[in-house]
Amino acid sequence: MNIGHKIADWLETRAVTPAYAGGLLIGLTVFFFGSATNTMAGWLYVLSGVSLALLGIAAVLPARSLESLEVRRRPIEPVSVGDQITIELEIENRARQPKTLLQVIDILPFVLSKPIVRPIEVIAPASIYRDIYYLEVKQRGIYRWQEVHLRTAAPLGLFWCRRSQ
User: Fold this and answer.
1) Rg (CA), the chain
2) C-alpha to C-alpha distances, 78 to 29, 84, 142, nearest whole angstrom
3) Cα–Cα distance between 119 and 102 in angstroms, integer?
4) Banded pLDDT at 24 (limits 50, 70, 90)
5) Cα distance between the two ends of the chain
6) Helix 20-39 vs helix 42-66: angle between axes, to the nearest 10 degrees?
7) Nearest to 71, CA basis, from 97, 99, 96
8) Is the pLDDT of residue 79 over 90?
9) What is the per-residue pLDDT for 60?
C-alpha cells in the first residue's frame, strides 16, 4: 500500500475522506475562488462560498450518521471442515431517525476468506438490523474475528467515513 492509500485510510477512519465527486467539488471550489480573486467577480465568490458550505455540511454528516450505531456478533457455533459457518451480525440503530446507505465490512480471519462487504439500504429508527451470511470452512482451526467496519457516504455522497467496532 502506497503512502496515498495510507493517508486516505487514516483519514477515513478518523475523520472523512473525499469520494470522487467530493474531490471534484473541492477542485471546482478552489478554481472558482481563484477565478473570483483574479477577476473580482461577485458571482464567482458566491459560487465558491456555496460550494464551500456544501462541502462543510457533507463532511460532517457521514460521521454523525455512524455515531448511534452499535454492532454485535452473535456466537458462532463450532463446525467441521467442509461445513458452513453461520455468521450473524446485529446492527442496532439507537437514533430517532433511520440510517441509510451503509456498508458493513466484516474483517474475517485471513485463512477463511477476504473481508465480506455487505450493503444495507436502511435501518429503521430504534431497531435492530440482522445480517446473516454463510461461509464454508476449508481448514481446521480456532479463529478470532477482530472487527467490523461500518462505512457510509450518506446523505450527499461527497465524503466517505468508516468506523470500526
Assistant:
1) 20
2) 55, 10, 9
3) 6
4) very high
5) 23
6) 150
7) 99
8) no
9) 94
Q: Are strands 159-164 and 127-136 parallel, antiparallel or unpaired?
A: unpaired
Distance CA 148, CA 106 (A): 5
Q: Inform me whether the pLDDT recorded for 138 exceeds 80.
A: yes
Higher confidence at residue 33 or residue 40? 33
In this structure, what C-alpha cell is assigned to residue 16? 472523512
How buried is residue 27: exposed, middle or buried, by Cβ count under 10 Å (0-12/13-18/19+)? exposed
Residues in CB range of 37: below 8 A, 6 or more apart: none
Among candidate residues 116, 9, 12, the one with its CA nearest the CA of residue 62: 12
Give the separation between CA 152 and CA 119, rounded to whole angstroms. 10
Nearest of 163, 156, 162 to residue 56 by alpha carbon: 156
Distance, CA of 158 to CA of 109 (rounded, Å): 31
**Beta-carbon-side half-sphere exposure of residue 108 (alpha carbons within 13 Å):** 19
pTM for the model: 0.85
Find where cell 454492532 sits: 71
| pLDDT at position 1 over 70 | no
Q: Partners of 30 in the beta sheet?
A: none
State the average pLDDT for the chain.
91
Band (pLDDT 50/70/90 cuts) for residue 106 is very high
